[in-house]
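quick q for whoever's on today - can somebody do inverse folding on this one?? i tried earlier but teh output was garbage lol. tokens:
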């Protein structure tokens, strides 16, 4: 799976990592629904850090179609809301 972090680039992420990332995504969604700004910021950073550490960066000149697009680290709660689907940033039907 190719994942783009806005403002940073793309990483190739093995599907085996999706369950753990989905758990962070669920936590992020819960914090957004409850207006928990501090929790949102902490979990967004944890999610992005996990994608960076688990994924393999693609070269800067590579332009692969991204299956998921994640917000940049400084994104606000409202900006992330515009990216969310019903299931969060990681769709529930993403390959597992």
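ok took a stab at it. sequence:
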């Amino acid at each position: 799976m190719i994942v783009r972090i806005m403002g940073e680039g793309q990483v190739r992420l093995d599907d085996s990592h999706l369950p753990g990332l989905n758990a962070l995504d669920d936590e992020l969604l819960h914090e957004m629904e409850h207006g928990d700004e501090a929790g949102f910021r902490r979990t967004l950073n944890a999610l992005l850090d996990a994608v960076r550490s688990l994924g393999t960066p693609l070269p800067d000149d590579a332009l692969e179609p991204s299956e998921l697009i994640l917000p940049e680290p400084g994104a606000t709660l409202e900006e992330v809301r515009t990216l969310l689907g019903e299931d969060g940033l990681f769709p529930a039907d993403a390959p597992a």
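fwiw The radius of gyration is 13 Å. also The helical segments are 18-33, 37-54, 77-83. so keep that in mind when u check it
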